[in-house]
Amino acid sequence: MKQSSTTARTRGRKPNSTASAQHRTGSRQSAASENSNPRSNAGSTSGNTRTNSSSGSSSSRQNTANGTAREHSHSFKGESPLEKFFLAQLKDIYYAEKKITQSLPKMQEATTTEQLKDAFEDHLHQTERHVKRLEKVFQTIGQKAEAEKCEAIEGIAREVDNIIKETEEGTLTRDAALIIAAQKVEHYEIATYGGLVQLAITMQLHEAADLLDKTLVEEEDTDALLTEIAENEINLRAEHEGSQEGEEENEDEDKE
Ligand SMILES: [Fe+2]
Ligand SMILES: [Fe+2]
Predict the structure, then answer these.
(1) How many domains is the chain partitioned into structurally?
(2) Which is the most buried residue in 27, 33, 84, 112, by most CB within 10 A?
């Protein structure tokens, strides 16, 4: 995945998520305060994300150096309405990431092409790291890591089960459908992480913002990689699947 992610990053990604748009908007705002040239902020999603990330990182480092970050982290009580919401969203995505570690092996097993199988396997390992990273986020704000049922991810997981039931084994149509389901997961994650990064920055939870931003970048890379796999091969081959069968049937009919 490392190689693939790099490829996805190098080639740039498509701005296909409203959620990451929120993140990008926020990034542009924070980047704008540091850079008066708007053109330098008008690049790819990754550019904006990284600008934001590095801005978060550098302020985090600065604040950690003088102890401010630590004070802020320890001052998080989870009591104000915004703190409560932030915590609830963390618990939601913690549940979702754990659920995804259960869904990805099923998706990998059901997949037809090796390329998609590898992508799902790589993202499974990455997702396991996302779970651990979230535990660190809980730790930095002095809260216990807890999961709260996320209905959205449960819904997408049911959709995955239906796709596997309704598509034929060994077909590219199944892969095309699984990619869309996987991208729904990624977009949900991008929405949540994008919003959480911005809230963490607002509440000056710099360590948490840095950690969440790392995951956000990985989710965006995965989304871009899935788009690439779909567009480069799977969708086209899936399109011909039905017509090939149709042609074969017609040929059989002609012979008779
Ligand atoms: Fe994740
Ligand atoms: Fe993901």
Answers:
(1) 1
(2) 27
